[in-house]
């Protein structure tokens, strides 16, 4: 009997990868002087995931503005985190446009971070294997027999699977 191919879901942590690409790639600008280094890095990682991971299903999770349920629990939640650079924030709509143009579902929910959405879906084990694509080491706590991490390591062309 032929070996059954695993049904694989890849969930991309949109903001984590944009943030990493923004810092890893020198400023790139369009002919109209629009900064696109985070967009380019995100796209590079996305296409690498499609090629290397070969997911049957794919989605991108994004954070939403307005805080999370954790802010209500603790006023100090992420109090020391620096504000996102303005020239990174201006690239978010372009990354979203890319994801939508490729007809990839976007996962987001007011009051929750992308991490919350990713963890919830991954731990439900809806498929044979879930690959979390992130630069966030907090995701390592989700690794189990059905969950792996495709971790981008600095430059978008460098990655490892955990």
Notes on the protein architecture:
This protein is α/β, with parallel strands linked by helices and 162 residues long. 35% of the residues lie in helices and 17% in strands. It is built from six helices and six strands, in the order βααβαααβαβββ. It starts with 7 loop residues before the first strand and ends with a strand.
Identify low-pLDDT runs. Answer: none
The average pLDDT score comes to 86
Provide the helix percentage.
25-40%
The count of strands amounts to 6
Q: What general outline do the C-alpha atoms trace?
A: globular
- Strand order, biggest sheet? 3-2-1-4-5-6
Features:
162 residues; alpha/beta; six-stranded mixed β-sheet; 6 strands; 35% helix; 17% strand
Topology:
Elements: E1 8-13, H1 14-24, H2 37-52, E2 57-61, H3 69-73, H4 86-89, H5 92-101, E3 106-107, H6 114-123, E4 129-134, E5 147-152, E6 159-161
Parallel strand pairs: 1-2, 1-4, 2-3, 4-5
Antiparallel strand pairs: 5-6
Give a short summary of the structure:
The chain is of the alpha/beta class. Helices cover 35% and strands 17% of the residues. It is globular.
């Amino acid at each position: 009997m032929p070996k059954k191919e695993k049904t694989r879901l890849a969930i991309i942590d949109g903001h984590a990868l944009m943030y990493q690409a923004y810092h890893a790639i020198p400023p790139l600008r369009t002919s109209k002087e629009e900064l696109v280094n985070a967009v380019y890095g995100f796209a590079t990682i996305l296409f690498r995931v499609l090629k290397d991971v070969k997911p049957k299903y794919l989605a991108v999770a994004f954070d939403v503005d307005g805080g999370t349920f954790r802010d209500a629990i603790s006023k100090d939640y992420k109090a020391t985190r620096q504000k996102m650079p303005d020239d990174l924030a201006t690239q978010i709509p372009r990354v979203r446009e890319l994801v939508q143009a490729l007809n990839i579902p976007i996962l987001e929910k007011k009051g929750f971070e992308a991490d919350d959405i990713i963890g919830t879906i991954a731990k439900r084990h809806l498929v044979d294997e879930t690959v979390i694509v992130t630069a966030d080491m907090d995701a390592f706590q989700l690794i189990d027999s059905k969950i792996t991490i495709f971790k981008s390591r600095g430059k978008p062309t460098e990655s490892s699977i955990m």
